[in-house]
Design a protein that fits this description.
Strand content: under 5%
Number of helices: 4
Order of helices and strands: HHHH
Helix content: over 70%
Shape: elongated
Radius of gyration: 39 Å
Largest sheet: none
């Protein structure tokens, strides 16, 4: 059987981390609910025991009856102390379990870093390749545009030949200048800003203006 990669092992260990947290969260909530129920029962029984004690003082009941009610109340208070102690111990017990997993994580940490670095290096190359492809495509797009645009230059040259124009300022090829962002009206351009890269890389979000421009 092939050895699991460090990344796979890391995935499984952190799944266990979440499971431990969830178990202790459920147990902690249950302990708090148990304590709350006991507190309410104790409050009610304290009133009853007080009334029974009054009856005992007035010789309306025997001592054993009072003592029985008092013992039951004391037992409830002991249970409450256990429940509250259980809740208080929960964080320490959770840390103990999480630390065991942390030790396992430490054992594979170096292998994990190597796999992570390899993955990042591979995808960095992919990203840079996409940049190269984009820039190469820009030239292909320019050549396509120039097949129609070139006659603007030719018309200007003809005007110069006819003496209708002193100098032809129009380029013979379509330039990139007209495709950069127009700041005054926010028309998106072909340049890619740091903000756009960060937004796409981190959140997979492309500017709505750019998306609208390609419809």
């Amino acid at each position: 059987m092939a050895k699991k990669s460090a990344v796979k092992q890391m995935e499984e260990l952190f799944k266990k981390v979440e499971e431990v947290k969830e178990k202790f969260e459920v147990a902690s909530q249950k302990a708090l609910e148990e304590a709350e129920v006991l507190k309410q029962e104790i409050q009610e029984e304290e009133k009853e025991v007080r009334e029974i004690y009054t009856m005992y003082v007035l010789d309306e009941i025997v001592l054993e009856t009072y003592q029985e009610a008092k013992n039951e109340l004391d037992n409830k208070k002991k249970l409450l102390a256990v429940a509250e102690g259980k809740s208080a111990d929960m964080k320490d017990l959770e840390k103990e379990e999480l630390y065991k997993l942390y030790q396992q994580i430490q054992e594979i940490k170096e292998d994990y870093y190597k796999e992570d670095n390899r993955n990042i290096a591979v995808n960095r190359k992919r990203i840079l390749q996409a940049k190269v492809d984009y820039l190469k495509f820009m030239h292909e797009a320019q050549k396509e545009m120039t097949t129609t645009y070139k006659f603007n230059r030719k018309i200007g040259d003809l005007k110069v030949d006819l003496g209708l124009l002193d100098y032809n300022h129009i380029d013979g090829i379509k330039t990139a200048q007209g495709f950069f962002e127009i700041s005054y009206d926010g028309t998106p351009g072909i340049e890619v800003t740091r903000e756009e890269v960060t937004s796409a890389f981190n959140r997979g979000v492309v500017s709505p203006k750019v998306l609208e421009a390609i419809k």
